[in-house]
Request: fold
Amino acid sequence: MRSWWALAAAGLLLLPWHVQQDGLTPATMLALGAGEPDMASALTQAVAHGRWWFWPALLALPLALPGLVTGRAAWLLAAGGLGLLAIAAQGLAVGVMGWTAPWLEAAFGPMEDRQFGIGLGGACAVLGFLFLFTEGLARRGLFRGDRFTAGAVGLLALCILLFTAWPVGTMLAQVTTPRDGVPALDAFWLRLADRKVWGAGGVFWNTVVLASASATAATLLGLCFALLVTRTALPGRRALRLLTVLPIITPPFVIGLGLILIFGRSGLVNQAAEALFGVQLGRWIYGFDGVFLAQVFSFTPTAFLVLIGVVEGVSPTLEEASGTLRASPMRTFRAVSLPLMRPGLANAWLVVFVESLTDFGNPILLGGSFGVLSTEIFFAVVGAQQDFGRAAVLAGLMLGLGFGAFFAQRAVVGRRSYVSMTGKGDAGLPTPLPGPVRRLAMAVALPWAALTLAVYALALLGGFVRVWGRDWTLTLSHFARAFALERAPDGALIWAGGAWHSLFTTVQLAAIAAPLTAGLGLLAAWLLARQQFRGRGLLEFALMLTFAVPGTVIGVAYILTFNVPPLELTGTATILVICFVFRNLPVGVRSGMAAMSQLDRSLDEAASTLRASTGRALRTVVLPLLKPALVTALVYSFVRAMTTVSAVIFLVSAEHEMATVFIINRVINGDYGLAIAYCTVLIVLMLAAMGLINLLVGRRRLGRRAA
Amino acid sequence: MSGAAVMLEGIGKSYGAQRAVHPLDLTVEGGTLVTLLGPSGCGKTTLLRMVAGLETPSEGRLLIGGRDVTRLPPGARNVSMVFQSYALFPHMSVGENVAYGLVSGGMGRREAAKRAEAALEGVGLAGFASRLPSEMSGGQQQRVAVARALVLEPEVLLFDEPLSNLDAKLRRSMREEIRALQQRLGLTVLYVTHDQGEAMAVADRIVVMQAGRIAQQGTPEALYTRPASRFVAGFMGEANLAEGVLGPDALDIGGLAVPVDGRGLPHGPCPVVIRPEAIRLHPAGTPGALPARVLRATCMGGHAEATLETPIGTLFALVPGGFALTPRPGPAAVTLDPAGVVPLPRD
Reply:
């Protein structure tokens, strides 16, 4: 408790309150009494520079003192609450142009001064006050009197509020931004009623039709794969399972590029058709067909992964029972197995629907004039229109679709959908597939698997060919342009390749984000799975809702919100890391939940009756036993941070360019060779990262002797 | 180390609208072993977990050694608990497991390890400290769990169905060990079980619970010989239920006058519990006995279990003696031993 007070005090008294333009150095760290107001601590700004709006927050410090001495909850609650409110209020009220709203000026008189975004000092003060507040709540008996739980819930709630609720709210408020002298509300209706959105071929219907088509196709294909792998003795079905790894390690453009190299204007098929039959196949790949094809290739493995669990979840005992009741295998399959899989199938469909909804890479590459929400939002923000209001309206529509899918999913899978089912198989052997079904599944799935491999192979081959379709000479020049290393005359190494910069940035930021994601995700999972407190249901719901916000929406929301104080993050690496952490948090939560459900609850209870504080129980008992989940969360969040594009495309800057954005820029310039070379390197890198993290974190030591 | 008294004052627990434990009072005297006995879902485990601090009571007060601990987290209560699954940390050695609570409390590792070794010795596991829990048998794991709880010298020791994962033979010897340990160290123990035999073997007092309330509490003998209701009678051992008429001198059951203790119950018709061992079989036509018919009889080795059809209903009887003495199906007669016949209050 004292240390949290000290943290708040340091943030207010010693550290520079605002973000420092030239970065933090040891010299500027101590900002008590700095001459330049923007480099000073809050106390100095209030005393020496007349920035009176810091006084309420400063006042919260002495207010907490009686609480520290007596341990009375009321003082802690008052001080923490006042501190948080005062910081939020001053940050929102005073911006770079003085007062942020006319009514503030009317109330407090004109403001000559201005301030920039909150920096290290502000962040420390917020955290300090937050934990003082939660400490007070715990002392009041909330969260079963547990300060660790209270603090963790407070931290999570603050994160959700700051990095999802507030940005999304800000973005939605932008839908009424006036345009060309049109009044606010009219501007909103104009944008919403736009024919380009709702008309035939409008982006909304385009998106819905594309997502539905992709979801249906991918689910059916995925089911065929899942049935083959789990219910037949097909040789090589283990290898089929490897398909499920593909979407994880595939940068977003590989499939699209592969399709272009096959079906594009200078693609293999077109060239062959022209050479053999003199037929011009044209550019059909650019448009709905191409995007659909690419999405089905991309998302079938995802549906496959979901459906493996679904098919394995069908209790063999029920099928055996059906068999003993004289049902033929076909009838068992139709009357027992398939209906039992129905919720799972619906879930897989919705998962792919959302994937397609938020997909940016395939539509931007292959869409041509076929616009979907994600690409239209992008063009509304970065294109010539620069119409944030339009972006906000479109993003609002996407948000609606995302939430719709989310609620449908909850309805289908049930409330506890988030806790992955423990695959506790009951006795009995799964019934083999009826012959016709098996033949159908094989006829569909095996060619598709071969096609997928062909697309990948050709895509990667493209990196080693001089100019696809014209000059088939094998070459390493694309790799050289991207990743050349040279020696300067003085012997120093020069990273001459064009891709090094973005690669380093990507790896660095992903590496920073991965442990944060895993830590926060596992903490959230532990709170939801293990702790009982009032508001747990609300927290879970809020968390799941934040996960349902599409990445594109987050991207737009972030640039609209974090462009200006109090959180001025646009163009920094921080915003990218935050984006990664919150986009990938579900991975951490999900693996944590799954692992936690396998872990006997009495283990942490035993620790707590054995005098261990909640924090110690978590550290010494839960965490060591969760190592596999930790590895999963680390690997996935790292890898996904490296391949994500939908949100970061809005957030990158020249200084912090990401690999995926670099690739898409090469693609837009028609430089496929380099793009593919880069993708290849990324895939290799991600496989290496997965192996390395596995090695570092190590195996769980359970001491079960191998029999 | 001697145990402190535990007092529950109006302690209750509800989950939303559903009541798991109705507000109840219960005292566990210092140095005694009290079992909470009842079918699954009766609230006995919830009650135990509230004493441990793993659940927060919805109402009431909990005092341990006179100190109000209602709102204290588990670690601050000076209780320890032996879990049904033992909850031994699988990634720590046996020694680390036993020392865990001491280290949590701030003791140095070396001192903690020394005390853990001593505690293990106390449960007959000297020299096992470096093993992993998974390398030990069920009974040994049970002892480790007990040692881990005891080493903290708690004021109150809690057992949550500690023997349910052991086989029948081991269960018998473990419960004797637990009882011996409790008496040697003068521990206050609250012990949850659904096995009445286990409860009778270890308890000073038994609290029978039914649907979130205390149905009856008392010594094992009191509960067996003077049950307060059909439920308690049925849960404490086997019981045949019949109807009788209580008079000033005797209980009339189907014309058979049984001179029982009236327990101060009002005279008139009342339900009656007839223990299986109180039923005496006689040859058919014995005067002063009820006519009966043996439907089935199975010899269990040392005694036989018989199902009898009588004017007062179908009775389940225990007949002493081995195979030679097992009754054959056919006509017979029965009398009742007053010691095993208990009139119940009308409900």
